[in-house]
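STRUCTURE:
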C-alpha cells in the first residue's frame, strides 16, 4: 500500500490502527517476496 493511498484512507476516516496494520502487512509481504527472489537467485548461481 502506498503512502499516498494511506493518506487518502486516513482522510476518509479509516482508523489509524487499521492503517498501521495494513502497512505492517504490506511490509511483511514485500519481505517475503524479496526473500523468495533472493533464494531463487542464489539457487541459479
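SEQUENCE:
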Amino acid at each position: 500500500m502506498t503512502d499516498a493511498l494511506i493518506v487518502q484512507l486516513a482522510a476518509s476516516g479509516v482508523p489509524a490502527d487499521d492503517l498501521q496494520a495494513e502497512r505492517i502487512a504490506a511490509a511483511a509481504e514485500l519481505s517475503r517476496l524479496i526473500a523468495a527472489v533472493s533464494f531463487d537467485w542464489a539457487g541459479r548461481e
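REMARK: Residues 3-44 form one domain.
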